[in-house]
């Protein structure tokens, strides 16, 4: 039901307020009140100003008085610059951004009359009423589906071009939702550019070349026609350029402007029937500082992630957003639609290896990120050479992350972390979404990873409540006490992954300290198991034990030399091997 039936007293007060305004104003005539076909209450009125009469219709929305009435010209004409199109509503002093339910339709009508008086003085001159509008890029671009992106430095580069001199430029094209987006990548030939844009974006679906020219005094053309653009170029003495970009059958990209007024034109069609599409230029603001200064060191760090499933993919994306510059990904699994329930990837990656898909995802988040990947399973049926290569690559990382839930993979990662004295982080989502575990092992501070895992297992067993572990870590499924199926959802997995990410960031950004007093936590997401309620977190204090670093048996120098002599290849074999390499 609409407001005027449910709040009939308000309808009465609205009529009374408008009648009172009419009785005291010689400029207003109120006509009939009548609901329209959508059951919105409407009232017609006329405003007299000088020798002019303006007819309007005020329409009360169904959500009144929580939303303001709307006033339209009766004949769908445009009478003001404060109007949303020729047949649109008037933008008055009372709007959605400052509306109060105590404001009445009579207040709206009075505001309408003040707008007319201000914009149409008796002198006949054109006056624009004062505006209370605040700039909004999103609102201004709603009707602009073709957009050209430039950075502040791009703008300086094009404004540094010689007057009326043609230059080649390259742009990257992409589609996002309903928008065509183009961005400048360089000015000048590919092999010898005079400018390379600092606006680093993922590669689009196409790279196109075009012509850019700076014309002093050129302004925004708006809804320009091919004829008007051709006439402008002729007037500037650029007739030859007109022939190349307009009088042709080719699809051409033409960038034209000066100072802060630049426009990209897409020109296409047969020479005798050319079409033109202007692109709205959007200045991309300089990147603001959104991360702490201490995170700057992350750009040079390498994180090795084993497991690109739901937990691993979320950790990788979070670390990439935080500024980690290098990744090693290890996973042989394929992405299928069912994985989209919890994975960072979407359905467009169906059928791809998760590692490859996650690589693309990271590149879309930070195009300059470096990603190396192995499509394999640690401890799986792989060649020994492949396994050795993956483990050696892990050993070169600054932090190792186990996101597999596999004991075999954990053991191999833990061994490499211990041997190379590299910190290790692991995460596990418990069955049924009841919570999860995050843990770390820091060289020479915490127990070695294998010992740390043992201490965590014993702590859980000592709580006197059966520890719920998933038989299949990928399912995160379990049952409650009454047998009701319980599944970990995306939010559950996201919580555990986010805590693991914070461990990694802490290790990389604060190598000499930590904001975490202990190195293992179980985090409750329900009142199951030993948790009293969601977000019930239990720290686990680990006792340092085990030796970090490569195991070295003591050997005197003479014995070492003898071993080397006995096992090095003969000189001729070594020379042959060197030649072959």
Automatic annotation (TrEMBL):
Residues 296-431 form the THIF-type NAD/FAD binding fold domain. InterPro entries: ThiF/MoeB/HesA, ThiF_NAD_FAD-bd, Ubiquitin-activating_enz, UBQ-conjugating_enzyme/RWD. GO terms for molecular function: tRNA threonylcarbamoyladenosine dehydratase; ubiquitin-like modifier activating enzyme activity. Signal peptide: none annotated. GO terms for biological process: cyclic threonylcarbamoyladenosine biosynthetic process. Pfam families: ThiF. It comes from the Bacteria. This is E2 family protein B. It comes from Rhodospira trueperi.
